[in-house]
Amino acid sequence: MIGPAGYRAPWLVAILALAGAHAALAQPVPNTCAIHYPSDAGIPWTCHRITRRDTVRGLFGSHWRDVLRFNRIDRRHIYPGVRIKIPLHLRQVADFTPMPARYPPAATDPKFIL
């Protein structure tokens, strides 16, 4: 309801905010451990559930960017409940790239941009 000078009823705003919060809570928590990529096959890893106290710097130190790249996520997607892959040897994911070293369908092309 709009009253004088464009004032909206506070209850309407509250209802819409609660509906939005409920929709956000209904989303499933991401699990990167359930997704398997060919480039991950050579790197042994274990699955870890992020807790409230976990931070990427606290868990991985200077390798945090490499671990997030290995999981194909950025730090905005790390929050309690998310499951991520943790390499058993962090140095194995240094400068990790999810792209394959060779791409056979493009072998005959003089130049291939992916």
Automatic annotation (TrEMBL):
Protein name (record): ErfK/YbiS/YcfS/YnhG family protein
